[in-house]
Design a protein that fits this description.
single chain; alpha/beta; Maf protein; 201 residues
């Protein structure tokens, strides 16, 4: 099987641009799934990132002519028993903003100091075609929960995720810095490596 095109299970053009930035020299073309918002939604209620990512890829591959890429990602804080975890996007309620989620997490982390503020971003990326999974890969990046939001770039928990390697939060990092270190960047490069070494492109 030759894979020269991946269809992203999202309607977000910003995510498409991010993936294209992650693999500028890749022989694989990336595009959005047509009419994504009009398709039956996938219920991301599983207990793990892997189940959500694979389930989403399998679900949307039934509506696509080609190989579908889907992901699930989030922030894991051991001191909070793994929260926000798979509920990262819904941590402060269904209609909460990024600022709401960051505020809730900072409030809950106020009593923790030093290594107790360790956290990691996790990303699981999955490929599927015609209702069958092809591959599931994952990666992560470790950092610390900052005392307060810093920086204006990025999204989600980026302003409070401090990366010691660059002494910045992801919201302070340049796009190149974030792409090199981020969970999404590492998982996607791992996926591309798998496709290349598996002789499927």
């Amino acid at each position: 099987m030759k894979i020269d095109r991946l269809i992203l299970a999202t309607s977000n053009p910003g995510k498409l641009r991010e993936y294209q930035r992650l693999a500028p020299a890749s022989p694989i073309a990336l595009e959005l799934l047509p009419n994504f918002s009009q398709l039956p939604p996938f219920d991301e209620s599983a207990a793990t990132f892997a189940e959500n990512a694979a389930g989403k890829a399998i679900h949307y591959s039934r509506f696509a002519n080609g190989v579908v890429l889907a992901e699930d990602s989030g922030l894991v804080v051991p001191a909070l028993n793994g929260a926000p975890g798979v509920r990262s996007a819904r941590y402060a309620g269904e209609n909460a903003t990024d600022a709401d989620r960051n505020h809730k997490l900072l409030t809950e982390m106020a009593r923790f100091k030093g290594e107790a503020r360790i956290a990691r971003f996790v990303c699981v990326t999955a490929l599927a075609q015609k209702g069958s999974a092809i591959a599931v890969v994952s990666d992560s990046v470790q950092g610390l929960i900052a005392a307060e939001p810093r920086g204006a770039n990025g999204f989600g928990y980026d302003p409070i995720f401090f990366v010691p390697e660059i002494a910045k939060t992801f919201a302070q990092a340049t796009p190149d810095e974030k792409d090199r270190l981020s969970h999404r960047g590492k998982a996607f490069r791992k996926l591309l490596s798998y496709l290349q070494t598996s002789a499927v492109i």
